[in-house]
Amino acid sequence: MLRYLVVLFSFILLVSCAETKTANSLQKGIWRAELEVQDNKILPFTFEVNEDKTLTIFNAEERILVDEIEINGDSITIKAPVFEGYLAGIFTDDTTIKGDFVKESLDRIVPFTMSYGKTDRFAISKNQMADLTGVWETVFSPNVEEDRYIAKGIFKQEKSGIVTGTFRTTTGDYRYLEGVLDGNELSLSAFDGGHAFLFTATVTDSTMTGTFYSGNHFQEPFVAKRNANYELPSDYSLTFLKEGYDKFEFSFPDVNGKMISLEDNRFKDKVVLVQILGSWCPNCLDETKFYAPFYKENKERGFEIVGLNFEYAKTKEKAIKSMNRLADKIGVEYPLLLAQYGTSDKEEAAKKLPMLNHVLSYPTTIYIDKKGNVRKIHTGYNGPATGEKHLEFKKEFTAFIGELIAE
Questions:
Q1: pTM greater than the 0.85 cutoff
Q2: Is 6 part of a structural domain of the chain?
Q3: What SS3 class is residue 159?
Q4: Domain count across the chain
Q5: pLDDT per residue over 117-131, tens digit each?
Q6: Which of the listed residues 153, 176, 205, 289 has the most CB atoms within 10 Å of its CB?
Q7: Contact 189, 164 (CB under 8 A)
Q8: Domain containing 153: what range?
């Protein structure tokens, strides 16, 4: 009998220990992640695990605080603010995690490895063969007319070989890029929890020839030449009302299903900004971070903003969840309306807004005066990674809204 009880107790103890297995934990300090993209390339980024068990993702000057981290046994899920994408991995030991970067609505999976204690984003093994500091006139997909688009590269190179900057396009910018020049080979990357960008190029003092990778689903070539005087077309010249239209109109439901239009009393005799955006869009996020506090400070002056969301989430419920997450994380107090879900296709978006010549970019902002007239339309957004251009936009924006309110 005693022997039976001992065996039974041992079995219970064994099962209990198995069920209460001690969870792994992220070691405090610097980690390096490597995403596996096309052409056997590695897209790296670094992050720090903080004292309070949050983590901070680094992209040049950008700091992204992540507080949605779940650890269950040897499994871990990391979800950055706002965006749908998440990192799901398994601890292979105390210093290594392997898994996938997942964007469910787009059916995209990118394998990754995270390693503790590795601090360098990219390695430098050769002397620098050029200095990339300055402005670069850039063309993406230069040999395919329907895919071709222009950009302005803005970079700063340190003596150590570290390179930071971004590419501005007519529809926005490619975030805070950080990397190195190793000999004559340039490598730049950015990761924000929703988007993974890698740029590689062979360079001289005056030229670049390279490839842009977005996750492991897309790549395209680019060429660039040094041009200190290069500028992109005006942000206000690309989107406009079609001939025959003199007003901007819409009617879409808010997150509670209530139909909202510019005919509603809340917009009467007020200056109104209509923001075309998606919760998945990095430039939209940068823009919303500026608009949200501006709205709070100026809404009592006869000023309104309304967001028209074009979401790629597969269901209405998921789209609304993403919109609410954006509003909660950024503190958006103006209404966000669900204009479309299931796709972010710009041609489909244009069908919902037939008075526009096209929907060229997420975001796009329509400025409407107190009489309901469209005063101008701004395409894209120059985020904080563009430096002086971002500050210039905010100054011009504030002045123009002030003029409209004063009319």
A1: yes
A2: no
A3: coil
A4: 3
A5: 999 999 999 999 999
A6: 153
A7: no
A8: 134-226
